[in-house]
Design brief:
Elements lengths: L3 E9 L3 E6 L2 E6 L2 H6 L8 E9 L8 E5 L2 H10 L7 H7 L4 H9 L3 H5 L6 H11 L24 H11 L4 H14 L6 H13 L2
Parallel strand pairs: 3-5
Antiparallel strand pairs: 1-2, 1-4, 2-3, 4-5
Length: 205
């Protein structure tokens, strides 16, 4: 199964790109919010994607759906658990950044969800009923898709890894978020508690 591809951009279309990887061209569907991040990319530029690979008996032709961040792919996998939302419909529906969709789900914002392509009131209600309380961490995805590596210590390390490597924050921003969380609650002693405090703090801004 293909989970990640890195190569040279050969072609851009409205909802897909052609990526050359080791002399093999892969057609990759890209949701609108991902396509927007490719606006500055030219044919020949190096790009990379986390891939959701879709193939079933009813859909025997493999479909590759690309994301800039592993966290975006993880959200997509949550999204397609909603009744009547398959991978292809989901890919078309993601017209705004994941962080905004996750926030709409957690804040019960039906109007925002109804504005997603192909999503009506009933489906928006199903999305909230299925996913509310499960996608809070995705509201912390950084607006930029640029990631950097860093290495803090002890129980803060897993939280830093999530913020930087999965949610796309810069190391300096992640350190600030963690420092503020520890300042608010110095008794924190586990990665889980720290992440929850970071989430609460960012939501409270």
């Amino acid at each position: 199964m293909i989970a990640y591809l890195e190569g040279r951009l050969l072609k851009k279309e409205d909802d897909r790109i052609l990526l050359l990887v080791n002399q093999v061209g892969y057609e990759i569907l890209v949701p609108a919010f991902v396509h927007e991040t490719l606006r500055a990319k030219q044919v020949g530029d190096e790009v990379s994607f986390y891939i959701y690979f879709h193939q079933t008996e009813r859909q025997p032709k493999p479909v590759l759906i690309g994301f800039n961040l592993e966290a975006e792919k993880a959200f997509f996998q949550h999204f397609i658990t909603v009744d009547a939302i398959g991978p292809l419909k989901a890919a078309k529906a993601l017209t705004i950044p994941i962080r905004e969709i996750a926030d709409a789900i957690e804040s019960n914002n039906l109007d925002c969800l109804k504005n997603l392509k192909g999503i009506g009131l009933r489906t928006a209600q199903k999305i909230i009923a299925t996913l509310q309380g499960k996608v809070g961490k995705f509201t912390l995805i950084r607006k930029s898709d640029t990631t950097e590596k860093t290495a803090p210590e002890d129980f803060m390390q897993p939280v830093m890894d999530v913020l930087v490597n999965q949610l796309g924050h810069r190391p300096a921003d992640a350190k600030r978020m963690i420092a503020m969380a520890m300042k608010r609650n110095s008794a924190i002693g586990t990665p889980e508690a720290l992440f929850e405090e970071v989430y609460r703090g960012e939501k409270g801004q």
